[in-house]
Design goal:
By secondary structure, the protein is of the alpha/beta class. Helices cover about 20% and strands about 30% of the residues.
Length: about 300
């Protein structure tokens, strides 16, 4: 498949996932992340590379790493290599190839149908961010960002450039609501914003929980400005995604003036219009934490 056009209407709280397998286990990846699915090609080994990296390949002039997803998940090679596929992805401003065993089909689902994972797949709990039942089968949604940061931490949030920001007195009492379902990223964001001087951070695992909190703070004529000064949201979250969350804020009379920054690995030139359509104040790709802090300064101070 080639993923050039996103057909889903923005803000409907739906997504499409590509289902693939490792061994007998079914996994899913958001179609938005997928650029192409191809048959395996020759891989050039890299000396001293991470054990989960098979090597690199050149496709249409671009050099990309190949990640052996079976190794990442502690599984063996496929029983029928003729069915193996390379899934070419793009997120966090980088392209990666994931080597999987089979690719089955695409399903359209609602974020509200995705449940928080329990210990459903021993040894990989920290890599699974959601579970959804499709046609009597459980499909596990992986934290691909964490998988890549575990291989190369330079691909994650890097606060090194914070000192380059204009010196200013930040107000630790300013309250920022953050919707982010990855505990791994919650911790990184909290650490970085604390270092920047923002201390009063309220984290929620999805847009639904954050929205309910905001509505509660603005009920009975109360001004939300007295409780919250800014909202930061991821896009991919179970129960309610960031686009739908942002749309709900803009349609709520008591909340619609709140600044909302979308902070996601899916902010690309091709997808930025989706955030604009739902009324996001600004959009930042997830590695760019310094840019995020600059935007917080602009809209909070």
């Amino acid at each position: 498949m080639s993923q050039n056009v996103v057909l889903l209407e923005t803000g409907t709280n739906e997504l499409e996932i590509v289902e693939f397998t490792i061994g007998e286990t079914r996994f899913g990846i958001n179609v938005i992340k997928v650029r192409e699915i191809i048959n395996p090609v020759h891989v050039t080994n890299l000396p001293n590379s991470h054990p989960n990296v098979e090597g690199i390949v050149g496709i249409r002039g671009e050099i990309m790493p190949v990640i052996d997803l079976a190794k990442v998940l502690g599984q063996g090679p496929s029983e029928n290599v003729k069915l193996d596929k390379f899934v070419i992805t793009e997120f966090n401003k980088h392209k990666f190839i994931f080597h999987v065993h089979t690719v089955t089909q695409i399903y359209r689902i609602s974020w509200k149908d995705i449940e928080k994972p329990s210990s459903v797949y021993p040894g990989t709990e920290n890599s699974i961010i959601g579970v959804v039942e499709i046609k009597d089968n459980l499909v596990l949604l992986l934290d691909f960002e964490k998988i890549m940061v575990d291989i190369d931490n330079k691909l994650g949030i890097n606060p090194d450039g914070l000192h380059a920001l204009e010196s200013r007195e930040r107000e630790p009492t300013k309250t920022i609501v953050i919707a982010e379902d990855s505990l791994f990223l919650q911790n990184l964001i909290r650490k970085t914003l604390n270092e920047a001087g923002y201390r009063n951070l309220l984290f929620f695992e999805n847009g639904l929980e954050a929205l309910e909190f905001l509505i509660g703070k603005s009920s009975n004529g109360k001004k939300i400005d007295n409780s919250v000064q800014l909202v930061i949201t991821d896009i991919e979250m179970r129960q309610m995604d960031g686009h739908h969350f942002t749309k709900q804020i803009r349609e709520n009379e008591g909340l619609k003036h709140l600044p909302v920054i979308i902070f996601s690995s899916l902010i690309t030139d091709n997808l930025r219009h989706k955030g604009e359509m739902v009324g996001a104040t600004a959009q930042v790709s997830k590695p760019e934490i310094v840019e995020l802090v600059g935007l917080i300064d602009k809209h909070v101070l």
